[in-house]
Protein: Phytoene desaturase
Amino acid sequence: MATAALIGAGIGGIATAIRLAVNGWQVTVFEANARPGGKLTDFEQDGFRFDAGPSLFTLPHLVDDLFRLAGENPADHFRYMRLPEICRYRWNDGTRLVADADPEIFARNIEQAWGEPAGHVRAFLRQSAFQYRTTENLFLRRSLHQPGTWFSREALRGYLAIPKLDLFRTQHAANASRFQHPKTVQLFDRYATYNGSDPYQAPALLNLIPHLECHEGAYFPVDGMIGITSALEKLAQRLGVVFRYETPVTRILVDRRIATGVLTESDERHVFDRIVSNMDITPTYRRLLPDEKAPERILGQPRSGSGLVFYWGIGKTFPELGLHSLFFSDDYRKEFEDQFIRKTIADDPTIYLHITAKYRPDDAPPGCENWFVLVNAPANEGQDWPVIIARTRQHILTKLSRLLQTDIAALIRTEAILDPIRIEQRTSSAQGALYGTSSNNPMAAFLRHPNFSSRVGHLYFTGGSVHPGGGIPLCLYSSEIVASLIGKPGNTTCR
Ligand code: FAD
Structure:
């Protein structure tokens, strides 16, 4: 039987393994950690369970598709709910806004809160939907590095739409021209952070992101975010995929410009017909392919933002907080300058709070909540993290204590911390970036590594550091692209 190796059991790796197994490959996944999921994992501590990484779940049908491909009913194995509200927003001046899942109510709530005409929000969301629909089939579901992509019907539609896609100004400039109130601008600028970017640099095309939440919906898996990983791992196993945990790959074996196998840390050599790396593309070249010429221009692209997360077991419940809550800063521009230019964390950071116990009471002891507290952070460039972490922790506690009118520090029963260094240690993500390379450059989509190697045959790449980018939906798209590039065993037209 034709064989394929996956290096890494992140979401992109597992999804690719499933697709290849469905296509008839015998797949083995080598994972350095003891568990699957990479960034999409969880942990328990002192009676609290925390989803450790992603918390925002959109486009769940991309997960369902994997079950359907395998001939299974997704609802039998993976359940999720559509959220009635997307996020509860708060500002330092006391303003509050609930982003309702119904875009019409959302628009009217904004008008009521600070007078931005609801029509502005409606028009913005229409444009967001247009941007998403025009680019989805061209940029996200296909390899940008295959000539066929550029001569397709979708490409033609894309070319015709270029003047309306808002490609030539920044996201912030577009939002500032569309909305009259700074809070509306800030609210929609925030979507740049969904792929670790800076709205003051990133192209306005990123305004396609709100369409996903506001029209397609925000979701939550009933088993928590870890439910995505667990359900897909089990599906892969049912398809015969073999997972080898605590088995880091140390080399991709190459013979006469063809990838032929992998070498593991314990010096075992395994021969395969196809190799797919779900490891971040930079360490894939630096560590696993040291004898191959690395694409320095691509690897040298600036990294996306990272995150600093405090996981706090809190000895109280807060009815005013939702599954997702966000506390904005007063000076958003300075916050991004701090992150992307000064490479530090602002003194008044925007704070994102995720509490799964709102929907899964067992995630915290009775009367308690499991807080996932995230602030945007720069990728690791050797900053003095212990100092930044201690300072930011204090700023967060002061801000939340003031806005929630409670001494939060006194309520912390247990604590864990995730920072850019730990993200890199646990997942090999270069510099601890959450989403691979940043989308701050308008050409970023073309500066991500392709899903295949143009120098080494039978070698492919999946996951958040390669095309089309980071975040769960894009990692799932990358698996679709890789599987279609590889094709079925015996298909000699594949790369
Ligand atoms: P990764 O998760 O990067 O995993 C790669 C895997 O490969 C790891 O398990 C690693 O151990 C393994 N590996 C690496 N090298 C080797 C080797 N040599 N041998 C064997 N195994 C190896 N996305 C969203 O969509 N929504 C969110 O709300 C969101 N929030 C986030 C918050 C945080 C704090 C973090 C950390 C991430 C967040 N993301 C979010 C981003 C999202 O988690 C990632 O884009 C996605 O999970 C990356 O998946 P991946 O397939 O690239 O693999």
About this structure: Residues 118-140 form the longest helix (23 residues). The domain at 107-209 is CATH 1.10.405 (Guanine Nucleotide Dissociation Inhibitor; domain 1). The chain has 16 helices and 19 strands. Residues 89 and 97 are 5 Å apart (CA to CA).
